[in-house]
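Justification of computing resources. Each target in the renewal requires a structure prediction run like the one illustrated here; the chain below, 242 residues long, is used simply to show the kind of job we budget for.
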Amino acid sequence: MSLLTVTDLKVSYDGIEALKGINFQVDKGQIVTLIGANGAGKSTILRAISSLVPIKGGSINFDGRDITSLDTVSVVREGIVMVPEGRRVFPNLTVLENLKIGAYLHTNQKEIETNIEHVYQRFPKLKERHWQLAGTLSGGEQQMLAVGRALMARPKLLMMDEPSLGLAPLVVKEIFDIIRRLQQEGITILLIEQNANAALRTSNYAYVLETGRIVMEGPGIELLHDPKITAAYLGQSRQKVQ
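Resulting structure tokens:
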């Protein structure tokens, strides 16, 4: 069952088409990955869904409702939350304060406290460092915090933009383990990831973008073994994340 359906999505920057009629869907409970070279339009798709950039044409349907014209806050209320590229935690606030910011749309203090405990159960390191300034955490810990902050909004769809960027291989494996666990907990995930090998191994379905268009799609494991994908995106570096 489709949770998110994007139809003929078009976005332009200064008269230049960044997205040229994108069509794709994310089924409920799945991990769906968008891969492609830098500048292909992957992040623009997430930003358009979040209403962070204006849409020139097309439509976005989420959980049976047209959300094309909603503002960003309303999109979050609908249940779409993004973990941004580069983590973007608030460095001068503590781990706990960062988490509370993720719950800014909720007013029930008891529910907020329960959600914080759920995040701590998922990420024990964050509980150990709840008093620590976010800017002093390691890159992997900051990524956990960025995910935890997003989970505080109780998303139906979690969009993740390059979650492994700049992280050591062992930490990358940990991040993908987290992504799998979130799916097992029932969270649907739309993933952008520069580590195409790890992303395709993890995803149920994937789309390949080139210059604002989807040029290929299929189950992640099938694309992983497609010679065209291997040549274009995997090359000689096929770091495995089991």
